[in-house]
Amino acid sequence: MEWFENEAHWKTLYPLLFDERRFASACEEVEEVIRFAKLSPPAAVLDLGCGPARHSVILAQKGFDVTGVDRSSYLIKKAEEHMKAANVLIDLVKADMRQSVRPRKYELILNLYTSFGYFRDRTDDLAVVRNVKDSLKPGGMFILETLSKDYLVGKNCPTRWEELPDGTLSVQHYEVQCNWSRLQIDVKVNTNRAVRYFRSCE
């Protein structure tokens, strides 16, 4: 089992990845995406690796035709909760991005919050990119947010800690592997819960 297939990991990481600050920042991020893509509703948008639908909900509120795809049942459930709370309609799909493709469906595909690069085999990353290409309409745009090794080198601090407003304490440590092509990241939460995950680093 790959680490991201373990639903317990997402339950542990959820309060760290998706606290109130993350949800609040989604509004500005969506505005920037719309300006950059020069997109107007009701254009079809795919939020690939949508998580709890932070961006999907805002896009739907603005009138876009939104599809959200995520392989985690836990995160799709959270997305459904946020969709219903916002009283919007999003086509939420539980699917692996390596197999998810809808030919020439979308004007815009988003992959935000560094949700690309979890796979050990780089051919899986290529499969995702091919699916994105096949799912875009002619002239469509793909916006990918990823982690830069230059950013990490500049930080020069492989270990950091963070305390959330509810008092949750997390410690994160990354280890560089394969000549800066991959990171191993260990997260410990309140010292009694731990997650180890991997991601590519471009």
Short account of what is shown:
The chain is α/β, with parallel strands linked by helices and 202 residues long.
Taking strands numbered 1, 2, ... along the chain, how are they ordered across the largest sheet? 3-2-1-4-5
User: Structural class of the helix and strand makeup?
Assistant: alpha/beta
Number of extended strands:
9
Main β-sheet, in a few words?
5 strands, parallel
Q: Helices, strands, pairings?
A:
Layout (H helix, E strand, L loop, with lengths): L6 H11 L2 H18 L6 E5 L5 H8 L3 E6 L2 H14 L4 E4 L11 E6 L10 H14 E9 L4 H7 L3 E5 L5 E9 L4 E8 L3 E8 L2
Parallel strand pairs: 1-2, 1-4, 2-3, 4-5
Antiparallel strand pairs: 6-7, 7-8, 8-9
Helix pairs in contact: 2-3, 3-4
Write up what this structure looks like.
- This protein is of the alpha/beta class.
- It folds into 2 domains: 3-144, 3-Layer(aba) Sandwich (Rossmann fold); 149-200.
- 36% of the residues lie in helices and 30% in strands.
- It is built from 6 helices and 9 strands; from the N terminus they run H-H-E-H-E-H-E-E-H-E-H-E-E-E-E.
- The chain has helices at residues 7-17, 20-37, 54-61, 73-86, 122-135, 149-155; strands spanning 44-48, 65-70, 91-94, 106-111, 136-144, 159-163, 169-177, 182-189, 193-200.
- The strands form 2 sheets. It has a 5-stranded parallel β-sheet.
- The longest helix has 18 residues, at 20-37.
- The radius of gyration is 17 Å and the shape is globular.
- It starts with 6 loop residues before the first helix and ends with a strand.
- 29% of the residues are buried.
